[in-house]
Amino acid sequence: MNLKEVVKLADDLVLAKTGKHLNELQEIILRGTWEDEGYKEIAKAVNRSEDRVREVGMELWQILSQEFGEKVNKKNFRSAIERLQNASVVNFGQDVVVSGTFNICGEPRHPPNIPNLHPPNQETSHQDLSEMPELGTFFDRTSELDTLTTWILQQHSRLITLTGISGIGKTSLAVQLVKQIKDEFEYAVWYTLDEFPTIDKFQSNLIQLFSNSEKQDSSPTNQKRLPLIKYLQNHRCLIVLDDVHNLLCSGELAGKYKPEYEEYRSLFKQI
Ligand SMILES: Nc1ncnc2c1ncn2[C@@H]1O[C@H](COP(=O)(O)OP(=O)(O)O)[C@@H](O)[C@H]1O
Ligand SMILES: [Mg+2]
């Protein structure tokens, strides 16, 4: 990672945690730390007291420690960044800075201050979580859950992927997340793509769920079926697709869909 990417990454993490961008002094401290400068040198360069610079630095390391899930300080900042490069949570809903294997969200593409849709209460929410696996004992993952919750509920990210080798805990993390936030949505659906549904089958399953509940909600009868994306635009939905790798060719560069599943690409792009 170069310095610009490091500052951008830190800014994203601080924004996710505090709702504010890095301030000028925080950024100067980050840049100085990356260049191996001491607090004394940094303070001199910006004409501030060393105590003040140290104090702001400590606050910054504290915020980053929470987001990194490990203790970060001036001495280990560089190595902590390197470890984070192997992080496994990827957010495609936003602009992405890619460096090696590490991707992290940038500014949301859509305005961050989208008005909050009224969270539905449980009576109006429609859930199909029959395919969601049972979760046994679940440990840790607090910071990942916080990050995902912020991306979804506060930043309104529309598409997020969890990637990593098999057995790393992606499904478990997603199950725990769904349990925590499902009631914030009108619809919550879990699909495991191990039976390779065609896009038509997948879309009609979802549309069926929307249509059923619209009928139940006593909307006009004989309503015409709309394309799936229209339902997704009109309702606040949490949809989890597990085992999405089944849609992709193995042994190819990432992102090559099997010919019969090519249309999923368009759906993801629409979202
Ligand atoms: N946070 C966790 N706490 C406890 N067990 C976990 C946790 N994450 C994963 N596991 C266990 O590890 C195994 C693999 O997890 P899983 O979520 O299926 O991984 P993946 O979806 O990445 O292949 C499962 O048996 C699961 O119960
Ligand atoms: Mg899994």
Number of domains: 2
The CA-CA distance between the termini, in Å, is 30 Å
Roughly what is the average pLDDT, rounded to an integer?
80
Fraction of residues in β-strands: 5-15%
DSSP strand count? 7
* Strand line-up in the sheet with most strands: 4-6-7
Bulk shape = elongated
- What about the largest sheet? 3 strands, parallel
Q: Give the ligands present.
A: adenosine-5'-diphosphate, magnesium ion
- Name the helicity range: 40-55%
What is Rg?
A: 22 Å
Low-pLDDT residue spans? 88-123
Number of helical segments with 4 or more residues: 10
User: What are the secondary-structure elements, in order, as H or E?
Assistant: HHHHHEEEEHEHEHHEH
Structural class: alpha/beta
Main traits of this protein?
binds adenosine-5'-diphosphate, three-stranded parallel beta sheet, two-stranded antiparallel ribbon, alpha/beta, binds magnesium ion, 7 strands, 271 residues
Tell me what you see in this structure.
Helix content is 45%, strand content 12%. It has 271 residues and is an alpha/beta fold. The chain folds into 2 domains: 3-84, no CATH class; 113-270, no CATH class. The protein has a 3-stranded parallel sheet with strand order 4-6-7, sandwiched between helices. The protein has a two-stranded antiparallel sheet with strand order 1-5. The chain has a two-stranded antiparallel ribbon with strand order 2-3. Helix 2 (24-34) crosses helix 4 (50-68). The two termini are 30 Å apart. Mean pLDDT is 80; it is low at 88-123. The structure holds adenosine-5'-diphosphate (ADP) and magnesium ion. The site of adenosine-5'-diphosphate has 14 residues, from helix 7.
